[in-house]
């Protein structure tokens, strides 16, 4: 048998200790910053999932679990289960309440956080935390500064050496639409072109330093089309997306964080957008 906690984590694609502890740290920054890095060790985590416990977890773990699943009591999370998990039955009084819960889930469409700007997002979740212990990063947008400017060469090399695969889709620095975007943001001609070209060449340089098959872990493509969204997909489970607003720089745009679930949501929409853009793009640089 397994616990309710395990089923809930599977629904959110958080059933590995690394993905769970990333979410643990994200919540800890809001609940109590001193708890960042205090998530369960591997053996302890899998005991939680199996229900191999003599009592409930330590109080600081319970605080984070309560923030992660506010609709469940700690005792309920560690109950055994043998069927698909929904909302706790005793919290739903009838069809009207169930309809309200379903409507709410549809309204948020997997969105779990909204930030007024990219800077607010970066303060809450730096890329080093977002990308820690991940297997895949897919990005599309303009210059992709979240990776290329916010992460050092050493950070990116460490990701790839740990097994991360990265796909980056840049707006073509020699295309028509990057000039349109420069005009829209009020930049002098060539500003965004130079930044994007620098980021592409920097990432290509990092790839060139990787041996053999490891170099294939970084893929670079370009596209020339109106830039509408900055999309970051992490481990087929988390989506960070920003719209490109008229006259506003990307750093000043609202940032939405969505998580994949068993319902279709924003994650699925933007994952499909990314794949379509990727298939229609062309190789960025060779080597």
Structure write-up:
The chain has helices spanning about 5-10, 15-30, 40-50, 60-70, 75, 95-110, 120-125, 125-130, 145-150, 155-160, 175-185, 190-210, 265-280; strands at about 1-5, 80, 110-115, 135-140, 165-170, 220-225, 230-235, 240-245, 255-260, 280-285. The chain has an 8-stranded mixed sheet, sandwiched between helices. The chain has about 290 residues and is an alpha+beta fold. Helix 2 packs across helix 4. The N and C termini lie far apart (about 50 Å). The chain folds into 2 domains: about 5-80; about 110-285, 2-Layer Sandwich (Endonuclease, Chain A), CATH 3.30.870.10. The protein is built from 13 helices and 10 strands. The longest helix is centred in the last third of the chain and has 18 residues, at about 190-210. The protein is elongated, with a radius of gyration of 21 Å.
